[in-house]
Structures are given as structure tokens and as C-alpha cells.
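Lecture 7, part 2: worked example. A protein chain together with phosphoenolpyruvate.
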Amino acid sequence: QKEALLALVDKPSITKDGRRVELAANIGTPKDAQGALRNGAEGIGLYRTEFLYMDRQELPSEEEQYEAYRQVAEAMGDKPVIIRTLDIGGDKELPYLQLPQEANPFLGYRAIRLCLDRKDLFKIQLRAILRASVHGKLRIMYPMISGLEELRQANSLLQSVKNELKESGIPFDEEIQVGMMIEVPSAAISADLLAPEVDFFSIGTNDLIQYAVAVDRMNERISHLYQPFHPSVLRLIRHVIQAAHQHGKWVGMCGEMAGDPLAIPVLLGLGLDEFSMSASSILDARACITSISYQEAKTWAEEVLQYKTAEEIVEFLKGKLGK
Ligand code: PEP
Ligand code: MG
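Predicted complex, written out as C-alpha cells:
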């Protein structure tokens, strides 16, 4: 069993009928890149950069960030690395920013909202990422975008940072892909309006589920309502993938759901292009992808979308997978 899985380390993630997807890893520090590679990651689908900012007294400098991003880029070589820009706030605090307490931190001043307000801090991160982009295949991803205005503001700031680098003769990857997370329901619903202005989407189900069903992802008492297989969640995911594909853009997923063995066939069937998960789940996911056909996964996805409750959906999938 273990041996069979290890044999999949450098195999492509390809279904029996030839659909290839990418299985990538979520990481929190540059060191994690080694574990990702050992577990057969074809890229980094989510580098959570907030850990660079946490457990310290002050903001990390541009140089410090550049070093971290360069390390990951070099470790991964020609494999893509998606660097998520700072996603602080919500459950993650930065004492030195002295942010006021909020009644609803998950609905508050966090992630891209903070970055678009503190452009000084955001620009330093963008500069560091762009400078590191000559050392590998980096991609930029914004968290918590809720609509087109925020996306445009972030992109225009990125453009101004690129212009500054050009004027100073500092090299960067001019073709760098720029995408956004889909983790706010408004972004999922209007994915068709956002798709033309990004290179890719990555669905952040951890937040998308909590906002879609209004269930705090940290609250144990209501955790039974936190349901990835809620028909509304699956409909949102289907819509996002369809909207992106209609505009010729690819779609990944970097929430926990991407590594859930029950969810993988459905997500594959819905057309998901990239699955990013904790490194330890990758080989199991590859075993799953290589053992089914895309055609079959599509029929499962269609059937699942007919059911009316999460319970029916989970029952159906467990039956299919013999669990
Ligand atoms: C998500 O929301 O699904 C996600 C991947 O981001 P985080 O878990 O860091 O909020
Ligand atoms: Mg999130």
C-alpha cells in the first residue's frame, strides 16, 4: 500500500482517459517546499505568506521577504509557486499593527482590505515577490477579493510596482500570472465578471463554506453545519469553474476540500484544473485521480448536483467509493 503510493511520487496526475490535472501543496514556510517535493507535489498551490509576518515585533523587510520567496522559487525549479499576498486579520493577528478589536473579525478589516488600505505594506510585498520571480515560476494571488473594484485596485497597484521596478532596471518575470482566491460568496457568484481580469482562480473553500452557510469555521458548536457538500457550496464551485473556463482561465482549489478523498472525484468531474492540499494528502489524491476516468467523474458530478441535501450527496459518494 505505502510502496504503491510512493511509486506515484514522480508520476503525472492523469485520469484513465487522459485528463491531466495538477496536484500541488499548501505551504506556510520556505522549508515546507522540501516536504512538498518529497510527497510528489507538482507545484505550490498556496504559499501562506502571513507566517512571515507573525510571531515577531515588526513587519518583515522587503529583503527578508525576497529571500523567502526566492528560496521557494528555487526549491521548486520550473514547478509553479502561487504566493498568496498577506492574509492577516480574521483569526490571524499581528500585534504590532495595533489593529482595533472588532465585533466580527471574519467580516472585518482583513486580507486584501487591509492591504488596499495599507498600500505601503502591500507594495513592499509585491516588490519582493516580483524581484524573486526571476528565480523560478512564481504566481501572485490575492486573498478575500469580494468584487471587481478590489481586484482592479490590487492590479493597478501591482502595475505601478512593476513600472517602478522597470524604471530602476530591476528584472522580474513580466509574464507572471496573477490570480485571486474565490472565498467570498459575492466573488463566486460574479466569477463571470472577475474572470476576464485574472489569469486564474483558486477556490478557498475554508472561507467560502463559512461565508456561504454562515457558519464560523472555528465554532465547534455549529461545526455539523459546516458542510463542504452542501448543495449551495457545490453549485458555487460549479459556477466558478464554468465561468472561468468560459473565459479560458484555469481554476484551482486550495481549501481543505481539495484534499478530501470524497470530494476529489466530484471536483475532477466539475472540471477543476488544480488541487492544492497539505503535502501528506497528495499521493492519496494521485492514486484516486489515476484510478478513475474523467467521463465517469463527470457523471458523478452531474448526479451529485441533482441531490437536495449534503447527506444524500455524502451517502452517494461513500457508496461509489465503497466507504
Ligand atoms: C481558504 O479560505 O480556503 C484558504 C485556503 O485560506 P485560509 O485557510 O488561509 O483562510
Ligand atoms: Mg481563506
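The mean pLDDT is 97. The pocket of magnesium ion (ligand 2) is lined by residues 143, 183, 204, 206-207 (CB under 6 Å). Keep this in mind for problem set question 3.
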